[in-house]
User: Fold this.
Amino acid sequence: MHRLIGVLALLATSATLHATDVVDDFESGTNPNQWGWTNNNGGVFTIVADGGNPGAWLDSGVPYRSDHPNLTSLPPAGTPLRDALDSGSLHAASIDIQRLDASSVVGCFPTYTLPSTFSLSLIDIHTDAAVIEAHTIDGPPAPTDAPFSWLNVAFTIPSDATDVPPGWVLNAPPELGYTWQDLMHNIDGIRFFVVDPEELTFDACWHLGADNVHVSYGGDDRIFADGFDGAPR
Assistant:
């Protein structure tokens, strides 16, 4: 009996270590985690029923104008992605992206064809008056030729790191003494950039698609309390 109890305890411990996956493939025709192609005017999207990778996908529409085009989610409370961001244990994020031909669209000019890299950004908008964020600086290269067909872009997220991990930059007001671990436990949103957010660019015309947005978390069943509770969510 003691041996059986020990085995059951080991299995229960192992179960808490399994990662949980949040996947948005838009096949239901809904967008519960509220992903949107964003620019200075907000977020836009249209769910297209076919032509994705496979099936349905999230269309930016055209012309979609942005100097740093990105797909962003600030997921509402109670959604699967909100649970993932609140977990303090993000592991990885990936997305399928395509760029469509917009050369025949009236007013879709100029287009952006300079070399760049994809980037993942994690955002805290409730801790301080300024937006706090971290983003990758060594993401995969973005194709300079348009259009390009579905391309998987993947990032690892070292949520257990005690300092800002290699390949990431953390932007926070110095007076806060804000750390990487503070961000891991205060993430409000997640953003996939098609152009490195640190690059000096111009307002260009794009037509982009997203599919199979995948966020992995877990390995610890605790939900961490906010480290900066002075500001409301």
